[in-house]
Design brief:
By secondary structure, the protein is α/β, with parallel strands linked by helices. It has helices spanning 15-26, 38-50, 65-78; strands at 6-10, 30-35, 55-59, 84-87.
């Protein structure tokens, strides 16, 4: 397991999300790039790694409940807990009311 503090940034494959992920990685975090588009997510991870930053891809569509649960299970198994969660991806998850 990585001993660095852990951050997940959703919508981090471009724009503000990627800039936040880069800033966190520069501050010493291991950054998980949450992206629903795997190809763009891989490009973002490569961009960060190419400048010596620690990052990995997490397939995640925050608008799809099953995707959120899968991502949570992966992170729980691999790192236990997050230190930071940055929500930069669009959300429109609809669930039943209580």
């Amino acid at each position: 397991m990585n001993n660095k503090r852990q951050a997940l940034v959703t919508g981090a494959n471009k724009g503000i999300g990627l800039a936040i992920a880069k800033g966190l990685a520069e501050a010493g975090f291991f950054v998980w790039i949450g992206a629903r588009d795997r190809s763009r997510g891989e490009q973002a991870v490569a961009q960060l790694r190419n400048i010596g930053l620690d990052a990995d891809l997490l397939d995640l569509d925050v608008a799809v409940e099953d995707s959120v649960y899968r991502a949570a299970a992966i992170l729980s198994e691999q790192i236990g807990a997050l230190d930071i969660l940055g929500m930069c991806g669009p959300t429109s998850m609809v669930t039943r009311a209580f």
